[in-house]
Design a protein that fits this description.
Number of strands: 18
Strand order of the largest sheet: 8-7-9-6-10-11-12
Shape: globular
Strand content: 15-25%
Distance between the termini: 42 Å
Radius of gyration: 22 Å
CATH class of the largest domain: Alpha Beta
Helix content: 25-40%
CATH superfamily of the largest domain: Mur-like, catalytic domain
Number of helices: 15
Structural class: alpha/beta
Length: about 450
Amino acid sequence: MNIAQLRDAYLIGIKGAGMTALAIILRERGVRVTGSDVPERFATDAVLAARSIPVHAGFAASHVPPTTDVVIRSTAYGDAHVEVQRARLLGRTVLTYPEAVASLFNSGRGIAVCGSHGKSTTTALLGFVLAAGGYDPTVIVGAVVPQFEGNARVGHSAYVVLEADEYQNKLAHYQPFGVILTNIEYDHPDFFPTPASYVDAFRAFVRRIPADGFLVACTDDPVVADVVRDARCAVIPYGRSQGVPEDLHLQLVGAHNAENALGVLAAALHLGMSRTDALAAIAAFTGTRRRFEIIGTAAGSTVIDDYGHHPSEIRATLAAARTRYPGQRILCAFHAHTFSRTVALKDGFAAAFRDADQTYVMDIFGSAREPHGGITAAELAAAIAVQSPAVASGNVAETTAVLLRDVRPGDVVICMGAGENDHVARNVVTGLQMRASGDEPMRAR
């Protein structure tokens, strides 16, 4: 895909974070962009609307413009999809998201941020820092970044900073010049059958960095330390074990974000940015959406939304909350994402909520690939309850109602997961605001 030669692109599953970022980049480079997705609203709806990118609600063959040059599909949709079939009947090129991104990333000076946790924040921070340093990168992030006014930044240099997702081994499509590798911990059991197969995806990726490229790696992680032995390029290690410099200042919460910033600082310095400028940019970064995002404060309580959906991410977020809000009660509503992950990591989830005073386990959020199976919210809640208080709380409306019943002034409510927990957070804030004004809380949607 040569963007310079494109006039018209159609994106299937355009509301996905990566797909939205790609749509923004194409639109800003003069390509007419349209697309389709499910009718439900996501955070990316506002991002697409702000760029005047039309989105069809639902899928139909008639949506695909006969004038389109290329159809790009999310990997959530296969060859049997009605719009993919229509594109092929029209004789149009059909690319998957990683194939389309690879054509952009591989033709530039691509820097990939990969790892099991921390990718979105680290990618956004690296892109922000390099932009502040005059490197003018194009940036593709899996989360909305307020300072980018979306989840992409369109630059005009050869630098492309990419959040490189390992799921479905998208890494295999990319030829990086540089990599930040944050950590490696088994995930996505629906695609990677064993921990070894998961690690091998990163190992192969590291091997593809050219000799004149670089690898910034958190070698505090023993799996990362093993994987980087296969690198054929310069390796720049980082980690909290080496100490956090006193001149590193962050607006982000948590020790895990300090570690992310150390990786970004190492990469920026390797690329020639001055330490003073890099540290100033790191201090000015305000974060990404759905990563310890304070949704609102009402009736004496604070409500936070967070995307953490792996046991390690949950532990890190709750530990950060315990540090930031000492002595306050923490109520955590958790929306587990996919049945296969919940089954495979059940023991990890059971121990992950110790810093919460009460955990509410929502009905498990499945996917088109696995709408049910293997475990229930009640079973997960029972496993968590062995070590810390937990109950099954039902769907969005039911969980909202239970939280509004239990929350007290001074409490911190954290709605966590990769599902619809952000809806709960906003509903709880609205309910608390109405309570503070003397009105009955509205019925949660």
